[in-house]
Amino acid sequence: MQSRRIALGFAVAILFAVAAQPGFAQNADASIDAIHDEIRALKDGAEEAFNAIGRSGKDGDIESILQYVHDDIVLVAMNGDTAVGKQGIQDYFMDKMAGPEPTVASVHHTFNVADLSTLYGDDTAVAHGDSVGTYGLTDGMSFTVDTFWTATMVREEGKWLLASFQFAPSIFENPLVDKAVGMIYRVAAIAGVIGLMVGFLLARLFRRRSAND
Q1: Which of 11, 74, 91, 181 is such that its CA lies 20 to 30 A from the CA of 152?
Q2: Tens digit of pLDDT for each residue in 187-209?
Q3: DSSP letters along 38-86, please?
Q4: Exposure letters 4-36 (e unless 16+ CB within 10 A, then b)
Q5: Nearest one of 47, 130, 64, 142 to 104, comparing CA atoms
């Protein structure tokens, strides 16, 4: 009789565990979904703030993006510059867009996410994707470039923040590289034409001298 009661107790415990399992899984899934929603909100907010700076070029708009970045953020920009910390972010945008001698007049990026962020625990995430960037420079040049990017995010005091962000433009499909190569070809063509003209003139000069001799 005692053994039956023990067996019955085990059976009831197993049934409770099995019954509770779906609810536990649902709670875990809901928690993960909530994390991804928070990360999406971070992405949307940071993208909007970045493009606001790109539209206005005003130093007052730089403050808006700082709310989305960690104090120790590391940014590797399109041109290869590295900005560290919030002060580094401010200095970078001031130098390129809002300072007395800016090089960038306007910029707009559309960031596309390749997949759900990879979560490492509940306070670290890594995301990647591609973007289409349109740039207008103060020297009048404008171009559109496709890039790839990767980002690391951390949750601190209940808020997700960008800890690192890196652009990776392609060196093979890059409008600046294409323009540089085109310029090299044009310079080479002009040099070739000048060389032919100089050669022609020298040849005529030598013929005249030979005739006079």
Answers
A1: 91
A2: 344 544 555 555 555 556 666 66
A3: HHHHHHHHHHHHHHHHHHH--GGGHHHHHTTEEEEEEEE-TTS-EEEHH
A4: eeeeeeeeeeeeeeeeeeeeeeeeeeeeeeebe
A5: 142
